Automatic annotation (TrEMBL):
Catalytic activity: 2 GTP = 3',3'-c-di-GMP + 2 diphosphate
Ranges of residues in domain GGDEF: 293-430
Domain PAC: residue ranges: 212-261
Catalytic EC class: transferase
Domain Response regulatory, residue spans: 16-132
Name recorded for this polypeptide: diguanylate cyclase
Residue span(s) of domain PAS: 144-195
UniProt superkingdom: Bacteria
List of residues that carry 4-aspartylphosphate: 65
């Protein structure tokens, strides 16, 4: 008989069998049989002792006699099942009571098997082996489930299990950070409601979202939109369910947007650069053709800027260009106006849907606004303050016209302003190619 206080711990390499029977003869026979099978054995002659040993050594299988004085087998089994440390150990009853009611009562206590007495030892061994196999596969499954749970819980990505209709069945803890909802709050919500879809009806079902990865905007609980990569994968084992993986790319998108914005800006003056202006002009040019609206181009050049640099230094010249740029920007008030630094000390400004007289008036306002800042240009022969010469060209373009022609005319007007004494505005209306065609037809 094993004393629970001194019972050795079970050897993890060998299956451990606890045999409980009040008849020492039975114990002896069963024990030798189990030892022959290569198992580690523990024995107890009463229910109480069996409980002590089971808690201490946590055997892999318990062979339990039903009829015993004191705590009988049924009650012992109930107590084993009630204790978390021993609840999962399979119990095999051994009993001479073979009535259906006895067998049912045995299984109702939570037993895994019921062997009739007299015991056929080969059969006992086979049933113990079967329980050990079952136990090992259950252990493997629960170990795998534990491992999976740890991975999913510690994942940096948000993981959701969703039904085809979009209803969330499960969410991992990372979803809290991604969406602002605790996992249990997400259960029952619809993924479709969290997605911000520009196209109506685009998220009617997850089939519409489709498998694979796509960039989506998801509404966080704080009301803000987060850019995310959403990867949908059908769970093959369970029809109609999808695994949805969320990867927050908001920061990535923000820096991408910042880069894109930076690519359109002049680094010194922070207004649009030449590339941006050319693309903008192309779009406005086409719109002006469609709507037969006037388009005005302003070209502005700082007067005697070389003298300014030579006298006050290049750094002061840079600050001066920034102030001129700001003045231009302040006059590009409408969304269809765009001020840009076109190169060196030359600036341009586009006024869409603006006739010649309005554009000339705006150009004059810019000229006076620069002069009014009283930026000293000590060696300028034109003025003691920094001044600009401005050319304005206006056209109502047609398909026959070229943007270059508008630029040439605005440049010529600006040079005319320089030639006319600087610090002035010269404006011109560009005759369109259509006028030339009509004139030719007349003569
Ligand atoms: N500080 C500074 N100077 C620049 C920059 N880009 C061009 N410049 C200077 O602008 C000056 C332009 O000189 P010019 O083309 O001779 O014309 P200007 O002296 O303004 O004379 P007018 O145009 O005839 O009135 C040159 O000295 C350039 O070095 C810049 O980014 N910063």
């Amino acid at each position: 008989m094993t004393n629970p206080a001194t019972a050795p711990l079970a050897d993890p390499r060998k299956p451990a069998i606890l045999i409980v029977d009040d008849a020492p003869d039975n114990l002896g026979v069963l024990r030798s049989m189990m030892l022959r099978q290569g198992y580690q054995t523990f024995v107890a002659t009463s229910g109480d002792r069996a409980l002590d040993i089971a808690q201490r050594v946590k055997p892999d299988v318990i062979l339990l006699d039903v009829v015993m004085p004191g705590l009988d087998g049924l009650e012992t089994c109930r107590r084993l099942k009630a204790h978390p440390a021993t609840a999962r150990i399979p119990v095999i009853f051994m009993s001479a009571r073979g009535d259906t009611a006895d067998i049912v009562a045995g299984f109702d206590t939570g037993a895994a098997d019921y062997i009739p007495k007299p015991l056929r030892l080969e059969e006992v061994c086979a049933r113990v082996r079967a329980q050990l196999r079952l136990r090992s596969s259950t252990d493997t499954q629960s170990e795998q489930a534990d491992r999976l749970r740890t991975i999913v819980n510690s994942m940096d990505q948000g993981l959701l299990i969703v039904e085809a209709c979009g209803r969330v069945q499960y969410a991992n803890p990372a979803c809290d950070r991604y969406l602002g909802y605790a996992p249990e709050e997400l259960v029952g919500l619809s993924l479709k409601d969290l997605l911000d879809c520009p196209e109506a009806g685009c998220c009617e079902g997850l089939d519409a979202i489709g498998n694979g990865t796509r960039e989506v905007k998801i509404r966080h609980r704080d009301g803000g939109l987060r850019a995310m990569d959403l990867t949908m994968t059908p769970m093959h084992a369970t029809d109609g369910l999808f695994v949805a993986l969320l990867h927050d790319i908001t920061h990535h998108k923000q820096s991408e947007d910042a880069l894109q914005r930076a690519a359109l800006l002049d680094p010194l003056t922070k207004i649009a650069n030449r590339r941006h202006f050319d693309a903008f002009l192309e779009k406005e040019w086409q719109r002006a053709i469609r709507n037969a609206q006037p388009l005005s181009l302003v070209v502005l050049d700082v007067d005697h800027f070389k003298l300014y640099n030579d006298t006050l230094g290049h750094a002061a010249g840079d600050v001066c260009l920034q102030r001129v740029a700001r003045t231009l920007q302040d006059h590009a008030a409408r969304p269809t106006d765009l001020a840009a630094r076109y190169g060196g000390e030359e600036f341009v400004l586009l006024f869409a849907e603006t006739p010649a007289e309005n554009a000339a008036r705006l150009a004059e306002m810019i000229r006076t606004a620069v002069e009014a800042q009283e930026i000293p240009n000590p060696r300028s022969p034109t003025s003691t303050w920094l001044t600009v010469s401005v050319g304005v060209a206006t056209i109502v373009p047609t398909q026959l016209d070229a943007i270059d022609n508008l630029f040439v005319c605005a440049d010529r007007a600006m040079y005319a302003a320089k030639a006319g004494g600087r610090n002035r505005v010269e404006a011109t209306i560009v005759g369109t190619a259509w006028d030339v065609v009509q004139d030719a037809a007349l003569y």
